[in-house]
């Protein structure tokens, strides 16, 4: 049986073994903790680093975003076979198992709006239960002595976009009051992402949760468009896979091969608050499409959103969200000097 089937049937725990250099434990269904076991000699002789860094890689928080799940399965399998050495503490998370199995974004509600306790505002259902479990396993992982001894923490929450995008691969960085870590931003740049987007307010996403509560360098990584399980061409995402493999193995990241990375800042969120809500752009409008100043992008009872320069770029436009949820983000493009100011202000 393949690993994905074993995962869905909750049998993977009994079928996958790791080399003696890795201590493995399943903290919950679909959540695997892997800690490198270093020999005492290595610890004594290693002058470079006495403590491992800590990494969290999650996928399938949205169940229909299949390519990242296949990537995670691939990493898990390489680690188990000893083909990929592990230098850092690692938590692998398969997010929304029921929705993955059903091939849907979610079963009851969007899991990636429920973190930092927001699940309590939702009726008990598949996702509110899962958000509670995931928050609890993250807390458990951070109480692990090896993890507490780390000095560097990173979380990559892997997603794929619903629509096409002018920048195919991009990272969304949660709002944080502290400065974004330079080496983390550099890693994203060297991984050949096309763009970074800095949030301007806190949210209920998984990456916000680990950033806000555990001071982790976190991001939501949008790696491209996904197809149903088994139909993805993982070669299209090989830059991300290679960057993650190198990171796990403690190897330096490669040199950037793509044109310069673009940076954006969220300026406004379009929130659907009424059934009269309408979005005035076609369904298939790509992410990061530039819109003219003065254009009325959305309206609902007593409210209208007009594009005002420099917030001319639209991200995640979606008129079909539930009332109360975000129907799009308006972005401003940053130059590196603007970004420094923005991040000092917490942007
Ligand atoms: Zn997603």
Question: Outline of this structure?
Answer:
With 347 residues, this protein is α/β, with parallel strands linked by helices. The chain folds into two domains: 3-249, 3-Layer(aba) Sandwich (Aminopeptidase), CATH 3.40.630; 267-332, OB fold (Dihydrolipoamide Acetyltransferase, E2P) (Beta Barrel), CATH 2.40.50.630. It has helices at 3-8, 12-15, 40-45, 66-80, 97-102, 126-142, 145-148, 182-190, 206-214, 238-249, 336-344; strands at 22-28, 31-36, 54-59, 89-94, 153-161, 170-173, 195-198, 217-225, 262-271, 278-279, 289-290, 296-300, 303-306, 313-315, 326-334.
Please give a structural write-up.
The chain is of the alpha/beta class. The protein folds into 2 domains: 3-249, Aminopeptidase (3-Layer(aba) Sandwich), CATH 3.40.630; 267-332, OB fold (Dihydrolipoamide Acetyltransferase, E2P), CATH 2.40.50.630. It has 11 helices and 15 strands. Strands 1-2-4-3-5-8-6-7-9-15-14-11 form a 12-stranded mixed beta sheet, with helices on both faces. The longest helix is centred in the middle third of the chain and has 17 residues, at 126-142. It is globular. The N and C termini lie far apart (47 Å). The site of zinc ion has 3 residues, from loops.
What is the straight-line distance between the termini? 47 Å
* CATH architectural type of the largest domain: 3-Layer(aba) Sandwich
- Domain tally: 2
| Morphology call | globular
Number of helices: 11
List segments where confidence is low: pLDDT < 50 over at least 5 consecutive residues: 44-49, 337-347
* Multimerization status: single chain
Rg estimate, integer Å? 20 Å
- The name CATH uses for the topology of the largest domain is Aminopeptidase
Query: What's the rounded overall pLDDT mean?
Result: 91
Beta-strand fraction estimate: 15-25%
Superfamily at the CATH H level of the largest domain?
Answer: Zn peptidases
Largest sheet: 12 strands, mixed
Ligand inventory reads: zinc ion
């Amino acid at each position: 049986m393949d690993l994905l089937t074993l995962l869905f049937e909750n049998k993977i725990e009994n079928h996958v073994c790791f080399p003696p250099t890795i201590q493995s434990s399943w903290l919950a269904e679909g959540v695997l903790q892997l800690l490198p076991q270093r020999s005492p000699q290595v610890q004594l002789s290693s002058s470079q680093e006495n403590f491992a860094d800590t990494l969290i890689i999650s996928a399938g928080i949205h169940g229909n975003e299949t390519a990242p799940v296949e990537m995670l399965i691939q990493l898990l399998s390489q680690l188990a076979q000893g083909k990929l050495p592990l230098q850092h503490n690692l938590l692998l998370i398969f997010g929304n198992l029921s929705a993955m199995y059903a091939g849907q974004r979610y079963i009851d509600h969007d899991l990636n709006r429920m973190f930092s306790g927001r699940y309590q505002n939702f009726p008990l259902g598949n996702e509110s239960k899962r958000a509670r479990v995931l928050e609890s396993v993250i807390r458990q992982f951070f109480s692990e002595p090896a993890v507490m001894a780390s000095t560097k923490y990173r979380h990559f929450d892997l997603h794929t976009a619903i629509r096409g995008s002018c920048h195919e691969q991009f990272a969304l960085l949660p709002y944080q009051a502290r400065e974004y870590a330079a080496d983390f931003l550099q890693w994203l740049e060297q991984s050949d992402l096309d763009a970074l987007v800095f949030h301007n307010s806190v949210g209920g996403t998984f990456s916000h949760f680990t950033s806000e509560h555990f001071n982790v360098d976190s991001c939501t990584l949008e790696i491209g468009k996904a197809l149903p399980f088994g139909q993805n061409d993982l070669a299209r995402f090989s830059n991300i896979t290679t960057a993650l493999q190198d990171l796990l193995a403690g190897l330096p990241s490669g040199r950037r091969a793509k044109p310069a990375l673009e940076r954006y800042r969220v300026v406004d969120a379009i929130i659907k608050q009424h059934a009269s809500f309408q979005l005035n752009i076609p369904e298939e409008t790509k992410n990061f499409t530039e819109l003219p100043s003065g254009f009325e992008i959305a309206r609902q009872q007593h409210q209208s959103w007009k594009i005002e320069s420099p917030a001319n770029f639209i991200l995640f436009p979606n008129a079909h969200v539930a009332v109360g949820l975000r129907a799009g983000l308006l972005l401003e493009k940053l130059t590196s000097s603007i970004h420094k100011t923005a991040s000092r202000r917490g942007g």
